[in-house]
Each structure stands twice: as structure tokens, then as C-alpha cells.
UniProtKB/TrEMBL annotation:
InterPro entries: Dimeric_a/b-barrel. GO terms for molecular function: monooxygenase activity. It comes from the Bacteria. Keywords: Monooxygenase, Oxidoreductase. This is Antibiotic biosynthesis monooxygenase.
Amino acid sequence: MHTSPDITRPDAELAVIGEWSTGSPEGQRASAQAAVAAWTDEERPRGLLSQNLLLSTDERTVLHYAQWTDEAAYQEDLRTGQPARRRRIDEAVPHIEHRGTFEHRLHRSLVLDRRGRPGCIVAVRFRSDSRETAARFVDTLLDEEPGFARRTDVMPPAGMISNHFHISTDGTHVVNYAEFVDEDAHARIVEGMLQEEDDVPRLIDSTPGLEPLGFKRFTTWLTR
């Protein structure tokens, strides 16, 4: 259950990320069970490398993270396989709210602890007015702002394993798929490094065309 996908695998050209709002803990569990049943009953689509369902700590959200070899394979499945799977899930859990699915490419990664085992995934989202804005923000964040990224005289935050920045193919969204040893480690970093006066929030506020959309924590995930 806690086998994490290899976000940096070189054969994954495309990451498709979607979010479902399920309204209740019961809806969250039922949505995950319906999705797993749909996976189990069909052959793996051509080009699909991994499918991952992440269940949020608020017990009302499911994040779907899928890795594909290329966009053509994903588009073929979008035409031929996904409509039936989605109907099956929606019939099992009628009140799912699909909050949008976006095609992404991994832009950059920062791995701080290669031996760490994630116990919490945090999805941090932004809206962007262009791919150029999104890339400039991520590059500035990793190259200039956080001391732990480039400076050898500053220790990485305890419990942070990695950050994987994805930019949607249309340039309108950024998702940081961040791995932590546990939920408490992320909470400590939010309290100690991500307050209004800290460097990262100041960079976000000073980047024209970038809008923060918040984050969600996930401590349970299912991988195929």
C-alpha cells in the first residue's frame, strides 16, 4: 500500500494528475475501492507505467497520479478505456466531484534524502498564467531562494525527502509532489519555514502571474 511511484523514472514522459472530492470519509474509501476494482478487471492500457491513488488526511479527497510513456498513449486510453472506468466509479459513488485532470511533465526534482522512506505525500498546487511563469518560479525557487537547495552550509529540513515540480502541458498549473517521512515533518516545516515573512512565501507573492492554491497531505496510497 505504501509503495511509492518512482517520480523520476526516465521512461515517464507524462504525469496525469487529477483530484476527486468525495464529500466524506465513506465516500473517499468507496471511491478508492471502485477505482481499484476497475483497475483489477481490465488489462493495463498500452503506455501506462503506474497508477497511484492518494487518500488525503482530511478524508474527503482522492488524488490520482498516473505515469505514461507519452501523450499519444494517454490520449488513446482517454478515447477508448477511461470513459467506461469513470462511469463505473461514478455509479459506485454518485457524489464524486471531479475537480479537473491535467497532463503534466516533470520539470525539476530536488532529492534531499535518497534513503528516506515517505510516510506522507504533500501535493502543493499553483495556478500560472503561462509555462514561462511556472518555469521561472520553479527555477528561482530551486536555484536561489531556499538555502537547503544549493548552500552547503545549511542543513536540509529534517524529514523532507524530496520535491518534484510538475508543470502542466498547457502551462496553467504547477504541482509539487513532495515526499516527507511523516505528517509531523511537514507540519514542522510549515511552521518553521513557510510563514508569511519567510523566503518561499515571499517569492510566491512576488512572482507575477502565479497564484497559490494551497496544499493537501496524503498518508495512504494505492499503487498499480
